[in-house]
Amino acid sequence: MTYSRITGTGRFLPEKVLTNFDLEKIVDTTDEWIRTRTGVERRHCVAEDQTTSDMCVEAAKVAMESAGVRPADIDMVIIGTTSPDLIFPNVATLVQHRLGIPACTAFSLEAACTGFIYALTTADKFIKAGESKRALVIGAECITKLVDWSDRNTCVLFGDGAGAVILEQSDEQGIIGCHLGADGQYKDLLYYPVGASKDLAKAGTDEASIMMSGKDVFKVAVSTLGNVASKALESAGVSQDELDWLIPHQANLRIIQATAKRLNLPMEKVILTVQDHGNTSAASVPMALDVGVRDGRIKRDQMILMEAFGGGFTWGSVLMRF
Ligand code: COA
Predict the structure, then answer these.
(1) Which atom of ligand 1 is nearest to 152's Cα?
(2) Looking at residue 205, what is its pLDDT?
(3) For the segment 168-205, what is each residue's pLDDT rounded down to a tens digit?
(4) Of 295, 294, 299, 286, nearest in space to 250 by CA
(5) Which of 24, 34, 37, 250 for a ligand 1 pocket mutation test, highest count of atoms within 8 Å of Cβ?
(6) Confidence of residue 48 (pLDDT cuts 50, 70, 90)
(7) What is the number of H-type helices and E-type strands within the chain?
(8) pLDDT tens digits for range 118-140
(9) Residues belonging to the active site
């Protein structure tokens, strides 16, 4: 039986930090409002000349080092992102080349905040099908470049970063189950109104900013994530007591608390980064995984459930032994 297993993790956060107090000077908001509604205290923001591929490269170097692999050992690169450097070529090709990884399967996919879960699930399938031995899988976003910094409804929520893992073919079970979902009926609740084939001329104008119906997103996210988490455990025959860690998408502390409650999981078993990172979209889950691994909380063989929810809506989970 061929399994896939994570053998290394890494993250990169841009140097610039924007606190809630900094935001008080930009829009009509308060640290208290942001903290109590979202749990966010600060977020990292890319510099003007910094790109998604820049962050991917740095996060990947750390992940490769922790897995003890060289660029020549990698045979696939998949990046989940909604904020690539360019419309084409895809950002995974830029990262493959910059890291000196030999020519291989390299592509990005877009599933908003669920991008990393979609990317990891895809890599798992390639490995289990015998098409890849060792994949570099990344979730990365320059989401603050899409934010309208005069809109207090959205600008307080987001941050930038990249999280990377090395996923390898293994004789020991790592990834146990993956579940993906999406329903485009919710597209108007959370979207960015500019794309390559629609209203491209609006890019860079006041009309291009994240559109979000916060209360509605909140409600669907809470119910969907609760279902996704329960389904992941049920279909693997794993009980809630066997779970060592929940690594949720870090959009909002209250959404995370609701999911943990649904799983009967104390918050001590949840990796939280939302306070320091904000919502980094596709980067949030792999960065939280790396935080837990590096501070020693997450240990080899522990049972971990990762889940995410984002624009589309898209959602998904990965249950694994680390
Ligand atoms: N500072 C101060 N006040 C703000 C504010 C801010 N940054 N942003 C919004 N407000 C105001 C609103 O204008 C509104 O004022 P009004 O009543 O005078 O119109 C008031 O706060 C309450 O807004 P409301 O929408 O009821 O707040 P909320 O409790 O639902 O919290 C969110 C708003 C966005 C924090 C919350 O809905 C949320 O987290 N939703 C999910 C968002 C998300 O996770 N998106 C990404 C998914 S991947």
Answers:
(1) 7
(2) 87
(3) 999 999 999 999 999 999 999 999 999 999 999 898 88
(4) 286
(5) 37
(6) very high
(7) 10, 13
(8) 999 999 999 999 999 999 999 99
(9) 113, 249, 279
pTM: 0.97
Ligand 1 atom having least distance to the Cα of 23: 7
Please, which residues have CB within 8 angstroms of residue 199's CB and are 6 or more apart in sequence? 193, 207, 208
Residue in the structure block whose two tokens are 């990947």: 60
Q: Which residues line ligand 1 (CB under 6 A)?
A: 29, 33-34, 37-38, 113, 152-153, 156, 212, 214-215, 217-218, 221, 251-252, 279, 309-310
Question: 269, 245 in Cβ contact below 8 A?
Answer: yes
Tell me the sheet residues that pair with 303. 321
| Residues 298, 294: Cα–Cα separation, whole Å | 8
| 266-322 residue pLDDT tens | 999 999 999 999 999 999 999 999 999 999 999 999 999 999 999 999 999 999 999
- Phi first, then psi, for residue 300 (nearest 5°) are -50, 140
- Nearest to 61, CA basis, from 15, 112, 10: 10
| Ligand 1 atom 13 nearest Cα | 153
**What percentage of the chain has pLDDT greater than the value 70?**
100
Element housing 115 (H / E): helix 115-128
Mutate to test the pocket of ligand 1, among 26, 215, 274 (most ligand atoms within 8 A of CB): 215
Tell which atom from ligand 1 comes closest to the C-alpha of 311.
48
Per-residue model confidence as pLDDT tens digits over 239-256: 999 999 999 999 999 999
